[in-house]
Design goal:
With 215 residues, this protein is mostly helical. The protein has ten helices and no strands.
Length: 215
């Protein structure tokens, strides 16, 4: 097991992250490869659950708020968000429109690695593409229709191979109690899931933090 993966597992336990949050952290890790489509598909399915939707989006906004050498967190979070907008709950796109400033700001993301490579360009270009898609409702509708058809075909193929059984109900956090899902979701916009809850300064967003490790 890689050190970065082990470190994430430890943080997952220490912070008591939910199943949905752990999946998002895995999909948006600092590992030098993109998020697996199978994992993004699982996360997309979770967005149809009220509680899981809150947890998924909350973790994505946290990743988008990262900077410096953790630019992969940001880039992968944008990649995941693009996937969720097209194949997840329609609430994903709705929340992105409500908080589009957070994504717009990333069009100016800056980070140059120790070898002089401009890694920030990856984030800037992805942010531009995503902002354009969020603003163009007709284009989003078309891409969403196409993406859902593709996802459905893949799901049927998986079912034909014997792996298409229905997933169990979403368990949420280990400390969750039955019947609390509704209130948790209603408080999303004014608590941990909303970008405004982080209260960060724009100037601090892109300041490299050399002391931070990979997650």
């Amino acid at each position: 097991m890689q050190t970065s993966s082990l470190r994430r597992q430890v943080k997952n336990m220490v912070n008591n992250y939910s199943e949905a949050e752990i999946k998002v952290r895995e999909a948006t890790s600092n590992d030098p490869w993109g998020p697996p489509s199978s994992l993004m598909s699982e996360i997309a399915n979770l967005t149809f659950n009220v509680v899981a939707f809150t947890e998924v989006m909350g973790m994505i906004w946290k990743r988008l708020n990262d900077h410096g050498k953790n630019w992969r967190h940001v880039y992968k979070a944008l990649t995941l968000l693009d996937y969720l907008i097209k194949t997840g709950s329609e609430r994903v796109a709705q929340q992105c429109r409500e908080n589009i400033f957070t994504v717009q700001t990333l069009r100016d993301f800056q980070f140059t690695d120790r070898d002089g490579r401009d890694q920030g360009v990856n984030v800037r270009e992805k942010a531009k593409q995503l902002v354009s898609l969020i603003r163009d409702e007709e284009k989003l509708k078309q891409e969403r229709t196409q993406a859902l058809k593709t996802k459905e075909r893949m799901a049927k193929g998986a079912a034909a191979m014997g792996s298409g059984s229905m997933p169990p109900p979403y368990p949420g956090r280990r400390t969750s109690h039955p019947g609390t899902g509704g209130g948790h979701a209603e408080e999303f916009s004014r608590s941990r899931g909303s970008p405004s809850s982080f209260h960060y300064a724009a100037a601090d967003r892109y300041e490299p933090q050399q002391g931070r490790g990979q997650e």
